[in-house]
Design a protein that fits this description.
There is one protein chain. With 133 residues, the chain is α+β, with helices and mostly antiparallel strands. It has one domain. Helix content is 41%, strand content 14%. The chain has helices at 8-24, 44-49, 68-87, 116-122, 124-127; strands at 2-4, 29-34, 52-58, 99-100. It has a four-stranded antiparallel beta sheet, with helices on one face. α1 crosses α3 (68-87). It is globular and about 45 Å long. Pathway: Energy metabolism; nitrogen metabolism; Nitrogen metabolism; Amino-acid biosynthesis; L-glutamate biosynthesis via GLT pathway; L-glutamate from 2-oxoglutarate and L-glutamine (ferredoxin route): step 1/1. Belongs to the glutamate synthase family. Its EC number is 1.4.7.1. It holds the Pfam family GATase_2.
Length: 133
């Protein structure tokens, strides 16, 4: 689960950075899924900084003997280090604009600066169904 910039160009740049890191570790990014959200319960200030939330799908690397969960843990860590290092040399709008909330093949983590009663409403399309909730 990724928090990405609202700006389409900044969002695409963040995805490119992650994809390059994934490929450098032997993974192939298969695609991205926009996570449906309902922001009607958010306040004005929260709406101004609300990220775009997406999930990434990619293949395990055959180069590593580590299981897929371990590979994703490493990929998440390396991606964040690359983004932080790049941020030290970039102005606002750089690759530091993304945050990896979770990266797992077993568990989906829904996060946000929300009150507990807002979480299910915000992610209703996913959490409001029997198959996901």
């Amino acid at each position: 689960m990724f928090f990405l910039p609202a700006s389409e160009s900044r969002r695409e740049q963040s995805k490119i950075v992650f994809t390059k890191v994934a490929e450098s570790l032997g993974h192939t990014v298969l695609g991205w899924r926009m996570v449906p959200t309902d922001n009607s319960g958010l306040g004005k200030s929260a709406l101004q900084i609300e990220p775009v939330i997406e999930q990434v799908f990619f293949t395990p690397t055959p180069r590593s003997k580590a299981d897929f969960e371990q590979q994703m843990y490493i990929l998440r860590g390396v991606s964040m280090v690359v983004a932080i290092r790049a941020a030290l040399n970039l102005q606002h709008g750089g690759v530091r604009d993304f945050y990896i909330c979770s990266l797992s093949s077993r568990t989906v983590v829904y996060k946000g600066q929300l009150k507990p009663n807002q979480l299910k409403e915000y992610y209703y399309a996913d959490l409001g169904t029997e198959s996901m909730g």
